[in-house]
Automatic annotation (TrEMBL):
Superkingdom field: Eukaryota
Protein name stated in the entry: (Mediterranean fruit fly) hypothetical protein
Residues in the signal sequence: 1-32
Source organism (scientific name): Ceratitis capitata (Mediterranean fruit fly)
Family matches, as SMART domains: DM4_12
PANTHER family according to UniProt: AGAP007094-PA (PTHR21398), LP19941P (PTHR21398:SF7)
Classification via Pfam families: DM4_12
Alphabetically ordered keywords of this record: Signal
Length: 252
């Protein structure tokens, strides 16, 4: 742009300056209309709902979850076990999902070989397999395995699944998951033992009953054993261990 001096800077120069200012003002207005103000952009970014892909946990091939119980009974002066005692050890291993299993069931269980299979049926099948192993172990110890599993389902449904009971510690959540059944009805083609377990589980939620009396053929509680009741001296044992769950006291 040329600068004028003296009388040479007439109306023509002033017109050029005005035209330049008008052009800059029009350009600024056009740029402002191209996008929303910065404050509006920041507000929309804060209100935007972010999406997250489904996550999963996959363990190395051959991984398993093992649980073992060691029972020691003093033959002379129980619970004093220094002199003569009798010990019984038993455990169970449960296969953990690996990468291949996770990829196969990424979108649920509908792509399984059996098209009529549902997620609830698959969950009940895994529970049935685990309960069968536990029954065998309990019966090898001289107890009624079927009655003890039934009592554990009854106590889990009555106490651990109570609406007033919030989330517990890791051990409580594991026991709650193992001894729980889906709310969906059992299909007719499923084994009779699954119908038997489902009736016990739902009846405990519906009726007022004492699980230790209802399943008196089992002389101990699997849930209380898992939470350590039988590993402390009798004078410190609480007979209300499970009954205190809805009050928020929890376990351990």
């Amino acid at each position: 742009m040329r600068i004028c001096h003296g009388s040479r800077c007439g109306s023509k120069g002033i017109q050029r300056v005005l035209l330049l200012l008008l052009f800059l003002q029009s350009l600024n207005a056009a740029l402002a209309t191209l996008g929303p103000p910065q404050a509006l952009q920041e507000r929309k970014a804060a209100e935007k709902v972010l999406s997250r892909k489904r996550r999963y946990v996959a363990f190395p091939d051959g991984s398993s979850l093992s649980a073992s119980i060691c029972l020691t009974i003093g033959v002379i002066g129980n619970p004093i076990v220094e002199y003569l005692s009798w010990a019984e050890n038993w455990g169970v291993a449960y296969d953990l999902p690996n990468y291949a299993w996770v990829k196969e069931h990424t979108r649920g269980f509908k792509k399984d070989k059996d098209e009529n299979k549902t997620k609830a049926m698959a969950m009940r099948r895994s529970r049935r397999d685990l309960f069968g192993k536990l029954e065998t172990l309990i019966e090898n110890m001289g107890f009624n395995g079927n009655a003890c599993i039934a009592r554990a389902l009854c106590e889990s449904s009555k106490y651990l699944q109570d609406a007033r009971q919030g989330r517990g510690n890791m051990m409580t959540e594991i026991i709650k998951t193992i001894f729980s059944l889906p709310t969906e009805p059992v299909f007719g083609e499923e084994p009779d033992v699954m119908h038997h377990y489902d009736r016990i589980y739902k009846r405990a939620r519906r009726d007022v009953l004492d699980c230790s009396v209802e399943h008196a053929q089992c002389h101990f509680s699997l849930l209380e054993m898992a939470f350590g009741k039988y590993s402390i001296a009798p004078k410190r044992q609480s007979p209300q261990l499970l009954a205190n769950m809805p009050e928020g006291r929890g376990f351990m």
